[in-house]
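[step 3/7] inverse_fold.run input=structure_tokens len=493
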């Protein structure tokens, strides 16, 4: 005769000590997060809150007191381009050029231009399509009006400026062309003498407007939404133009094109891509079915920072760590217009309202006390770098546990090992099984930088999700789940 015999399921501890990045897929690994804000991979494999940013607050002196303003105004109603030229910052509005805060008197721009590119050429600046060349001299800046093709965008490479145009040229003729200036002289585009320094023009067969341009060691890369055009060679006689169908730059995301680690990063219609001279490939599989558009990017600290809008128009900054291959998400409260790298620090231009702008600088520790990015002669009486008061952050985990497993174990408690900076706080929420509400199971607002472990009593459940919320600096070292058997296994004996 067979008799039932129950075998107890032992309790166990499962420890998670390596935390990944953002994953928007339906199936989220336990080490990743389905949503987050203001986290960083700086201390990977630990989960950590990003460093503080800072704002450049300007002030005027009234009655001996400083009166601060969060934003500054510039001639014109909107900014159309921002670049760094050596140690200076050049800002183009719709009507004027401002270099380190000083308006260049003779540089008058066409207010009807929607898309403008300022190209650094040594210490000088070429502005496309306005055809202005601004030369720095010991006495200041001189402005020259050039004779050049009407171009959509341009880039410098190997002592030439390369540009492109899809649409009507200056004569009203429809063209689909790329151009290169005379070697060493971006003001000369038509002086053909049959020598190696001549300018260059080529017509293309692939259709569609140009959506981006960049340069790497192999040559200049032009993008359309469905094509990539590669230009290689050193002289007009050996220039080679090769185009092939591929996921190019999304229309409206021309500012997402950034060169980093000898590769080009950019936003296509359905992914964030990398092009290394062979074929482009996606690095955003972890986004899942989420779609984004209107990308603006920059790079610093070996990372690719890209501000994108989701289908509801909400902007967030996604950060790709090229070393660890992880995505993290930061906030984008101001609505980014431009990103550029200044002295190794990421600087972003945001709009407060039409005609009013501000700067924030990433990594407050590295930026504290440094000169304002607009330079000393910025037309204001002064400025001051002010770090954020606090960083508000959150992270939402994958689902832990297996509801469908016949050998079920229920959660008994959690053990959280972390450290908090002075003045920081942390709340931990749990959503057990199929519940629709978060339950707070932990709150800490009085801790030191020392690493400590906190036991957390949780409601009985077989599967659960966690949500972390806090303000200030926090580092999560590990998460331990203590589970116990929910019953026995029957064996006949």
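[step 3/7] decode complete -> sequence:
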């Amino acid at each position: 005769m067979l008799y039932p015999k129950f075998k107890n399921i032992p309790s166990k501890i499962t420890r998670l000590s390596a935390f990944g990045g953002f994953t928007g897929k339906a199936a989220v690994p336990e080490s990743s997060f389905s949503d987050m804000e203001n986290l960083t991979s700086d201390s990977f494999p630990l989960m950590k809150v990003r460093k503080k940013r800072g704002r450049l607050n300007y002030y005027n002196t009234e009655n001996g007191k400083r009166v601060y303003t969060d934003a500054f105004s510039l001639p014109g109603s909107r900014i159309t381009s921002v670049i760094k030229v050596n140690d200076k910052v050049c800002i183009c509005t719709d009507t004027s050029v401002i270099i380190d805060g000083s308006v260049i008197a003779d540089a008058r721009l066409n207010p009807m231009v929607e898309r403008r590119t300022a190209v650094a050429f040594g210490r000088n600046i070429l502005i496309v399509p306005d055809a202005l060349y601004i030369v720095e001299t010991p006495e200041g800046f001189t402005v020259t009006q050039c004779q050049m093709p009407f171009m959509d965008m341009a880039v410098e490479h190997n002592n030439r400026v390369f540009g492109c145009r899809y649409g009507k040229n200056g004569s009203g003729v429809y063209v689909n062309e790329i151009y290169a200036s005379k070697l060493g002289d971006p003001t000369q585009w038509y002086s053909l003498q049959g020598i190696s320094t001549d300018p260059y023009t080529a017509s293309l067969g692939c259709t569609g407007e140009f959506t981006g341009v960049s340069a790497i060691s192999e040559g200049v890369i032009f993008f359309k939404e469905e094509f990539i055009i590669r230009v290689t060679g050193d002289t007009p006689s050996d220039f080679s133009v090769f185009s092939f169908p591929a996921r190019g730059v999304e229309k409206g995301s021309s500012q997402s094109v950034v060169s980093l680690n000898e590769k080009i990063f950019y936003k296509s219609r359905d992914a964030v891509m990398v092009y290394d001279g062979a074929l482009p490939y996606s690095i955003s599989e972890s986004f899942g079915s989420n779609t984004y558009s209107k990308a603006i990017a920059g790079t610093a600290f070996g990372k690719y920072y890209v501000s994108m809008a989701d289908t509801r128009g909400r902007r967030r900054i996604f950060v790709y760590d090229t070393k660890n291959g992880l995505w993290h998400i930061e906030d984008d409260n101001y609505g980014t217009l431009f990103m550029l790298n200044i002295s190794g620090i990421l600087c972003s231009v945001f709009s407060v309202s039409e005609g009013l702008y501000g700067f924030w600088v990433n990594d407050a520790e590295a930026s504290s006390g440094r000169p304002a990015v607009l330079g000393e002669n910025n037309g204001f009486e002064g400025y001051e770098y002010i770090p954020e008061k606090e960083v508000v952050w959150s992270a939402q985990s994958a689902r832990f546990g297996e509801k469908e497993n016949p050998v079920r174990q229920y959660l008994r408690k959690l053990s959280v090992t972390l450290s908090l900076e002075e003045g920081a706080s942390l709340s931990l929420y749990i959503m057990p099984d199929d519940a629709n509400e978060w339950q707070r199971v932990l709150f800490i607002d009085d801790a030191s930088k020392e690493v400590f472990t906190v036991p957390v009593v949780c409601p009985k459940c077989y599967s659960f999700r966690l949500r972390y919320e806090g303000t200030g600096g926090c580092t999560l070292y590990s998460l331990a789940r203590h589970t116990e058997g929910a019953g026995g296994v029957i064996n006949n004996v």
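[step 4/7] annotate
Residues 376-381 have pLDDT under 50 and may be disordered.
The helical segments are 364-367.
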